[in-house]
Each structure stands twice: as structure tokens, then as C-alpha cells.
Amino acid sequence: MKHFSITLMAVLCLMLSLPANADDHNRTKLTIRNESFTGIRTGEVYRDLSYYVAVELNHTGQHIEISHFGIGNAEIYLLDHQNKVVDNITIYEGTSIDYLDIPKQSGYYALVIWSNNYYGEAYFQVE
After folding, report:
1. Exposed / middle / buried, residue 80 (Cβ in 10 Å: 0-12, 13-18, 19+)
2. Alpha-carbon distance 81 to 83, whole Å?
3. Residue 74 vs residues 8, 19, 26, 41, 62: alpha-carbon distances, Å
4. pLDDT digits (tens, 9 = 90+) for 70-80
5. Residue 38: Cβ-neighbour burial (10 angstroms; 0-12, 13-18, 19+)
6. Which run of H or of E encompasses 2?
7. Which 8-state DSSP code applies to residue 94?
8. What is the strand order of the sheet 97-101 is part of?
9. Quick check: 45 and 38 in contact, CB under 8 A?
10. Do the Cβ atoms of 53 and 113 come closer than 8 Å?
């Protein structure tokens, strides 16, 4: 009976993880570059563990998902290969996830996140 229970649990875990893995294939995590946190009083640039920023392209939903914490209110700019602003939004400290649409036009893009405390850039290509 014990072996049957363990086998049943293993099969259930496998079945429940399949939909999660399928969704992961439709997402691309972007690497944030030039990431820095600026001290409010000192003006020093340093890394701080009290903030979190992650950016993912969700190909199924055709949007860019920006997860964030601790960076304060910020502006997010989506720039094309000529550094022209394609889209922009303002994000607020009380929210933890914000979205931008993935551009319909193919090409290279940069996502810039800029607040009083934080700066980061992520680059991606739309085919």
C-alpha cells in the first residue's frame, strides 16, 4: 500500500507539472543590464538586496511582464533600434507586476526602467 501511495503521488506531481512547463516554453526571461541602485542621500551607486526586478516576454499573451519590488515609482520606456520611444508606462510602488505590449514590428528593442532609486536595461528581439 505504501508503494502504491508513493507511485500515485509521483504520477500526480508529474501530471500537475506538465501545464506549468508548457507555459514556461512561451516565456523568455530577459537579463537586466546596467542595473544599479542609487543611494538617495549619498548619490553612491551600489547593489542592494532590498529590491527586485525581473522582466519576461510572454509570447502567448503578447506582453512584457515587469515584476518589481522596492524600486519606488518608476518610468518604463520601450525603445526601438533608433532609440525612439515606442511605448512607456509609469509604475507605482504599491503594485508588483506591470505589463507592456510586445511590439508588432519586428526588430531590436530596449526596455529601460528608471526611478529615483533604480536603473536597469533589458534588450530583446521581436521576429
Report:
1. middle
2. 5
3. 48, 34, 27, 18, 22
4. 889 999 999 99
5. middle
6. helix 2-24
7. T
8. 27-30, 52-58, 63-69, 97-101
9. yes
10. yes
